[in-house]
Amino acid sequence: MMPVEEIKLAVNFKIDLVDADEAAISEIHRLFKEYRKIVNELIEYSHSHGITSFISLHHAKYRELRQRYPTLPSHYIVTACKYAASIYESFIELKKMGRCEKERPVFKGRTIWLDRQLFKLDVEGWRVSIAVHGGRWVVLRLLHERYHERFKGMVLGEAWLVLRDDGNLYLNVVFRQTIVLPEINTDAKVIAIDINENVVVYGNDDFIERFETNEGIIRTRYFLKRRRI
Q1: How far apart are CA 65 and CA 53, in angstroms?
Q2: 39, HSE (Cβ side, Cα atoms, 13 Å)
Q3: pTM for this predicted structure
């Protein structure tokens, strides 16, 4: 029987804000504001009580936050607990290694963790639906290239909504796929290759080479030019 392995690949989509509905954008910005507030409150609680466990933090704060944010989909509070616990745990590790001088971490609110209950991805129409307040959903168009076609047959995982400093909005999605591993000659030299949108990295235990293609940047530039024309 051939060995199998599940691989995870992350893909980045830029969200088209040019044709987006103003009400939808307003809802998304409201979401970022409240999510930042919740995560920082959870970090403060973790710091005050020495909590690095998601389960303990969820048990202590979920019900209270659910009552204070009744129109916010409950899974945002769940992912906020995961985020806060992860951030604080990493902070503690950095403090132990002497690599952090801050008293406690601060979440700047540029990322929202979306589990599978908070978004729907239409890979045929290249649109994403995101759950917002009051049981509503906003639909946003994704800018895509031929590169993104390869993910259509893969299993959809979690995602992150990212707001850049320049105001652009991105959706980072994780896809999973089970692959069959070929039989490998143990005496052969194996080279691993990682092909990303703008960078190709390859190597093994003896060497690593990195080659920047900037392909994604070039494709996006010409896509925007064609759309303007």
Answers
A1: 17
A2: 25
A3: 0.76
